[in-house]
Amino acid sequence: LVADDGAVRATVFAEMSALAARTGAINLGQGFPDVDGPAHVAEAAVAAIRAGRNQYPPGPGVPALRQAVAAHQGRHYGLDVDPETEVLVTVGATEALAAAVLALAGPGDEVVTLEPYYDSYAAVVAMAGATHVTVPLVRTDGAGYRLDAAAFRAAVGPRTRVVLLNTPHNPTGAVLDPAELEVVAAAAREHDVVVITDEVYEHLTYDDARHVPLATLPGMAERTLTVSSAGKTLSFTGWKVGWVTGPAALVDAVRAVKQYLTYVGSGPFQHAVADALTDDDGRTGAWMADLVASLERRRDLLCEGLVSAGFDVVVPQGTYFVVADGRPLGFDDGAELCARLPELAGVVGVPVSAFCRAGTPAAEEFRSAVRFTFVKQEDVLVEGVRRLGGMR
Ligand code: PMP
Ligand code: GLN
């Protein structure tokens, strides 16, 4: 049974949100905003329902959303995407990633990811019957977590079918820079590998970090499937509207699998997201700019609070997560610390070990690490850090 594989089990997010609900602790574990996205975008979904757009949308997604996604890739990154053949709308990024891995990899194939990795990666690689190979991110002095170029080159070889990349990176908040992306691109070109890149946090970067899509590097558009989602950008995680763009033949292969996973995604939300993406230099864009500015402030608030509480913190350049090490407080096991945090401080976090495979160098490196989210209202974060401050 694939469910016997350690990678396919109850997700850590369900477990930790249940712990928060049970104990009444402040949930800084699962990453979802405690304030909804823009009201005018929500109204657009209501309008789509009232307008009777309630039957199955087209398999690849509603044309307006495919056009909006293609235009977004052009406007922000200079990528030339054909909305007819090179865009597939999916049920969140999660389905895009699953369908892409199932479409491209099977028994005997290796799928390379960074480690720590978003938890669904290990699960879908196991479901595909492929082998998961990981490359640890390494902590540097002053530059946060970075790609280990030599380890990455060594991990990609003749058995590699897919590299599944994630930048901005959950959980470390690292935003890969052009030199790191070139290491990935060079290995992919050399070994004729397809790269699936999970860019759901593309717009959530801070300070002077900027997201660069891998598909913009030389020779990469033809071998890259780029995945994103409205969940993070628009703060509507519950709508589950995602998409994948890339060369027609690869997108076709993903669509073939997607048909048998969910057939299509929810129609009214696709119409609303289409309006919002088209307007990302208008009212929706202004809302997004406010979100990023406010997340940057909330990042600083949480990081400073965690440092004052005694954690060793690596300040993230992107996403809405921060990794904090509990060792200075005397905890060298993050999973144990997370299990006790509700009782010790009335707060919930997620152990970074849930994003690692037991026994790997990364699992050892991140053993004492806890991931906290800052996509919560400022007063919630203030109270959270006040409570954590009482731990020592
Ligand atoms: N990839 C990463 C790195 C994530 O953090 C998440 C979580 N939200 C997803 C994919 C899933 O996105 P969605 O909710 O759109 O399925
Ligand atoms: N991506 C979010 C996180 O990392 C949650 C998504 C989920 O619960 N599956 O916390």
TrEMBL record:
Residues 25-377 form the Aminotransferase class I/classII large domain. Keywords: Aminotransferase, Pyridoxal phosphate, Transferase. One of its GO terms (cellular component) is cytoplasm. Its cofactor is pyridoxal 5'-phosphate. CDD domains: AAT_like. One of its GO terms (molecular function) is kynurenine-oxoglutarate transaminase activity. Belongs to the class-I pyridoxal-phosphate-dependent aminotransferase family. This is Aminotransferase class I/classII large domain-containing protein.
